# Entry
Amino acid sequence: MLFSFCCIRTELRRLGRCCHLAVAACLLLALTLPCHAATWRDDLPQAQQLGGGELHWFGLKIYRIGLWSAQVPFNPAQPFALELTYERNISRQRLVDISIDEMRRLFRDRYSEMQFQQWHTVMQNAFVDVKAGDQLIGVSLPGIGCRFYNRDALLAEVRDPEFARAFFAIWLDSRSKDAQLRQQLLGQP
# Structure
């Protein structure tokens, strides 16, 4: 009888975690829904490009990227934008997978796997497939979260400052995979 009670209690706990995950996923989805159709320049009207560069992979140009901010020198505690112009077609799934892999690499010790799974869902809802010439712009709003735009409109708003910090760290953290690109973005020689 003790065995049965323990099994039932374990099963209830497991179901409780599943319910919590489902509720969290629904909340995150709601937080990624666009709230208005504006351009990223509306968020940062005084922004100027601080630096930029290109990402290459095995000799292929993947995208051009620029860092925009009204704050000079760059201060990640102030709003800023990363503007990516793609040179290749890339699926949303590939963008999400690469981003979450990098966030895990940088912050595996800081965030739980459950958090990374939630962020995977957030990006799945926020990102789109891109074709050569398309732009995606991420705007960091410290203390609030971030917004994602294409050339013409808001795609998603994510009200999660921790997500925003981890996402933009892909390019701006001192442990970024491409240290040279990071320096170019920051306008450093």
